[in-house]
Amino acid sequence: MIYISKNLDETLQIVKKFLNSINGEGKATTVAFYGDLGSGKTTFIQFLAKEMGIEESATSPTFVIQKTYEVPLKPSGLGQEKKFDKLVHIDAYRLESGGELSHLRFEETLSEPNTLICIEWPFNVEGVIPENSLKVECKFIDENTRTYEFGN
After folding, report:
1. What does CATH list as the number for 2-151?
2. Per-residue pLDDT tens over the stretch 66-122
């Protein structure tokens, strides 16, 4: 299904639907975010962090590649139950292969239970992303409008 957002409030509602639709089932869940620059990938992940109760500002990890956020024991998100203990945000824009993620202990992160792993620019590291990863396709329509499509 394709969701259309014409403002940040609508994006937040889409994020809530997405978060409600995923189930960590005690293992790491990987989400690959596809889309051009300015298509809303980072904004979506920032809203995910906020909805999970993470109070720290979830900025893009373009230069550090990966940022990890602990989810509070009692999330302050709007009505969300705690599904994950940790959010790992990876920006693979500057990477040339999946092997470069090994320096960040990516294999260990994949085995950590209750971890939500969000990867921007996943085509740069396709060889190491699990086949069962969820996918979010983000598209820029105009200055205010984005579309989000969820899939496997």
Report:
1. 3.40.50.300
2. 999 999 866 555 455 678 999 999 999 988 888 888 888 999 999 999 999 999 999
Hey, what long-range contacts does 41-45 have (CB within 8 A, 24 or more apart)? Answer: 41/120, 41/136, 41/138, 42/91, 42/120, 43/8, 43/11, 43/146, 44/11, 44/14, 44/15, 44/136, 44/138, 44/148, 45/89, 45/118, 45/120
- The per-residue pLDDT for range 46-67, each reduced to its tens digit, is 999 999 999 888 888 777 889 9
CB-facing half-sphere around the CA of 21: CA atoms within 13 A:
16
What's the pTM? 0.90
> DSSP letter string over 4-55?
EESSHHHHHHHHHHHHHH---TTS-EEEEEE--TTSSHHHHHHHHHHHTT--
Distant-in-sequence, close-in-space partners of 122: CB < 8 Å, separation ≥ 6: 32, 33, 34, 92, 129, 133
Element containing residue 87 per DSSP (H, E): strand 86-91
- Collapsing DSSP to helix, strand or coil, 104 comes out as helix
